[in-house]
Design goal:
mainly alpha
Length: 320
């Protein structure tokens, strides 16, 4: 609870006492790993994560899956904070171990589904996102048992992955209200960041002003609480918005200004990495734009999208 409220010192004090009494408790190790990660202490986070994985593997039997619950959700949470998804296969293995165990209880299943949902988001896996959305939708308005406070925040991320920004907006509004009411400031800051990330490519009426407001709130909270990884993410996202025009021209099939910029670079044969570097965007944001472009232009691949751009005079293919 101290971590959810952003009272880091009290969270560290409780964590220290707990780990002194029970240094191999999977819950304590998972909470400490996330706490260190939020503060940007990545080496300490990794050390506790390694202990968590060791605890799981030492305690695993075919009929007991309790310890596996925590790697299944902590690893995706850490990947979400750091942007480094190098252990998702391990998290997937832990999740499957829990879900296949006859000793699993409903609370474990809900915790593991939190991890699976985050993995779907980080992988950009639309099918997996739809599956986890269906599994978690009934929990709207409640608190998750894992390390993300609110179900609606997670449903918003899943909706974004499913290329449904309007649905994502509804969930993020509910998540903001939940976090403010509960006083969960770190989660509120992350919700503001993720909500802004949805609105930037949507580019609807009033979205630009809303993006700036959300990012300012996220930056204010993360600076006050010393959440270095989130601060860096917010600053980078603010830079992404700097080139957005105040009034957006109309483009065919509902394409946004940013999507047209990405489409022009697709038509010039640029890779996602090259587009990210040229437009100063994250790879995840570029991948989201590309998927949205293919859907809006009814294109099966990048070649068809390039042809669409040429047909609608959105780009000159001789341009370099």
């Amino acid at each position: 609870m101290s971590r959810l409220e952003g009272d880091w010192q009290r969270a560290y004090d409780h964590s220290d006492r707990g780990l002194e009494l029970s240094p191999r408790d999977a819950r304590l190790l998972g909470t400490r790993a996330v706490l260190e990660c939020e503060m940007g202490e990545i080496a300490l986070c990794e050390a506790h994560l390694e202990l968590l994985l060791e605890t799981w593997r030492l305690s695993w039997t075919q009929t007991f899956s309790y310890a596996a619950t925590f790697p299944a959700v902590v690893i995706p949470v850490v990947a979400r904070i750091t942007g480094v998804a190098n252990r998702l296969d391990t998290a997937q293995e832990a999740a499957e171990a829990v879900l296949s165990s006859p000793a699993m209880v409903p609370l474990q299943a809900l915790t593991v589904r939190t991890g699976l949902a985050l993995m779907a988001v980080q992988r950009g896996d639309i099918v997996a996102a739809e599956k986890q959305y269906a599994a978690l939708e009934s929990q709207r308005g409640t608190m998750l048992p894992g390390w993300i406070a609110n179900v609606d925040h997670l449903l918003g991320l899943l909706s974004q992955t499913m290329n449904n920004p309007d649905q994502a907006v509804t969930h993020f509004e509910d998540a903001l209200a939940f976090c403010r009411n509960a006083g969960y400031r770190p989660e509120l800051a992350w919700t503001c960041h993720d909500y802004a990330d949805v609105l930037i490519p949507r580019s609807g009426p009033g979205d630009q002003a809303r993006v700036l407001s959300l990012l300012e709130e996220a930056l204010s909270i993360s600076r006050e609480l010393g959440m270095r990884p989130l601060m860096e993410r917010v600053v980078a996202l603010k830079e992404d918005t700097a080139s957005l025009p105040a009034k957006l021209p109309a483009y065919p099939d509902g394409l946004s200004e940013r999507e047209v910029e990405v489409l022009r670079l697709i038509a010039l044969g640029r890779s996602n990495q090259a587009i990210a570097e040229e437009l100063v965007l994250s790879l995840r944001t570029v991948a989201h734009h590309v998927t949205s472009i293919l859907n809006k232009t009814n294109s099966s691949n990048r070649t068809e999208a390039a042809a669409y751009a040429s047909r609608h005079r959105l780009v000159s293919l001789e341009e370099d």
